[in-house]
Design a protein that fits this description.
Elements lengths: L14 H12 L2 H6 L21 E6 L9 E7 L7 E7 L2 E10 L2 E6 L8 E7 L7 E6 L11 E7 L3
Antiparallel strand pairs: 1-2, 1-8, 2-3, 3-4, 4-5, 5-6, 6-7, 7-8
């Protein structure tokens, strides 16, 4: 009976490459990304921050004429004007209607104490890097008085 040929020695398995591939695929990229600060590159361009981005609840500080006081604009869809917002602004115990739009990303709101005439225009610009969540500008009293002059404001988007 013939003897079988001796088996050739097998090369040792390349475990190093397999180990590296397994380690890379197991790296928890989603957990790593969650803890990174948000990049402003993900924010919309100013021109893309139109009227839909104004919808929601905001906190205005300081809404003249009472520095240190706050106002809460609540803005939604404007039924009559497709590219505008409409809502209310609450300040102290009063509520006034407000409407506005965003021309090139820069918002303008018009408040009306009597519901018919503009009493207070708010003109502002979205703060760079805020992703549209902060607007700074000027609150202008349509009929300025010493007790109600024009004043700077900051609008900050509120949750909910």
């Amino acid at each position: 009976m013939p003897r079988p040929a001796p088996a050739r020695p097998r090369p040792a398995p390349r475990r190093g490459a397999a180990f590296i591939l397994i380690a890379i695929s197991a790296y928890p990229t989603s957990a790593h990304r969650r803890n990174e600060p948000q990049s402003t590159a993900a924010c919309p361009a100013a021109a893309d921050r139109g009227h839909p981005r104004l919808r929601g609840r905001w906190l205005a500080e300081p809404p003249a004429p009472a520095p240190g006081a706050t106002a809460t604009p609540q803005l939604g869809h404007h039924a009559a004007l497709a590219h505008s917002v409409r809502g209310t602004v609450q300040r102290g115990g009063t509520t006034a209607p407000v409407s506005g739009d965003a021309d090139g990303g820069d918002p303008t709101l018009e408040e009306s104490i009597n519901g018919m005439n503009i009493s207070t225009p708010w003109t502002g610009q979205v703060v760079d890097g805020s992703c549209g969540k902060e607007i700074r500008g000027t609150w202008n009293n349509a009929t300025p008085t010493p007790s109600a002059p024009s004043a700077p404001f900051a609008l900050r988007r509120q949750a909910g």
